[in-house]
Structures are given as C-alpha cells and as structure tokens.
Design a protein that fits this description.
5 helices
C-alpha cells in the first residue's frame, strides 16, 4: 500500500512529551547555568590573576588589602528576566568597576594624572567562554531529548 504525504504522528507525540516535562527541563536548565556560571567564574578569576596586579594601599583615610579584587569575583544565583533564565558573574569589590573600565588618577595635591585603561577582565573571559558554553548547552539538550 502506497502512502501519500508525511506521517507526523511521531513528531506530534514527541512534542507532547516535551511539553509535559516543564519542571524537569527547568531543573536541567538551572543546573546547567549554575555549572557553567561556576566555570566562567573560575576562568574570570584566572584572567584577573594574570592581568591585574595585587596592590595593597595603606593610608590614614583608606586601607585596602592586596588581592581584594581577585577575591571579590563571584557567581550569582539563577534568576529570570524577560522570560529567560540567567546567571551572572560579578565583582563585589567597591572599586571593581574602575579596574574593569579604567580611571583617571588624582594625586594628593589635587592634580590629575594620565588616564589609566581598564583591564576588561570580565569581557575577555566571556568572549573566550562563549564557545564552551554553546557546546555544553547542546550536550545538555541532547541528553534531555535522549531521556524522552
């Protein structure tokens, strides 16, 4: 017996199975984001240790331990924004934004020095990590599909 057209019943059945598993998919997605966020945090901290000097500052009005910027690099929690699950890697250092974007030094006598360029640690680490994250996401998706 010859058939005309396509048989989509298996495809429709697969789509129904996928739609019936939202909690399981959410758990897999959260775990993936946490794991990959931790890997990105490690890569960012490694990049920071390689490019940013550990400098201690001891003054009467300001005291700062060496390596505070390096210790402040953290991974956040998974959150939802605009319907997408996200995670962030950030620096909790009060002057982390200056290290990242640059600053203009001011001497104690009030004169301004030459602008210091930022190190762009987070941006460089994210660029290098993008391909690895895409591969991990594909692997996780394949694993979820194979379970069904």
């Amino acid at each position: 017996m010859a058939r005309d057209g396509f048989d989509c019943s298996e495809l429709m059945e697969f789509a129904e199975q996928l739609g019936a598993q939202p909690k399981e998919l959410e758990k897999v997605q959260k775990k993936l984001l946490r794991d990959e966020g931790s890997k990105l945090r490690r890569k960012t901290a490694q990049q920071a240790r390689a490019t940013v000097n550990r400098t201690a500052v001891h003054r009467k009005e300001y005291d700062r331990a060496a390596g505070q910027y390096h210790k402040s690099i953290k991974r956040g929690k998974v959150y939802t924004k605009d319907g997408q699950m996200r995670i962030r890697v950030y620096s909790g250092d009060p002057i982390g934004h200056l290290v990242e974007k640059g600053w203009t030094p001011k001497a104690r006598d009030g004169s301004h020095g030459k602008k210091q360029d930022g190190k762009n640690v987070f941006e460089e680490a994210a660029k290098g990590f993008d391909e690895q994250f895409q591969q991990a996401a594909e692997d996780a998706l394949d694993e979820v599909i194979n379970k069904l």
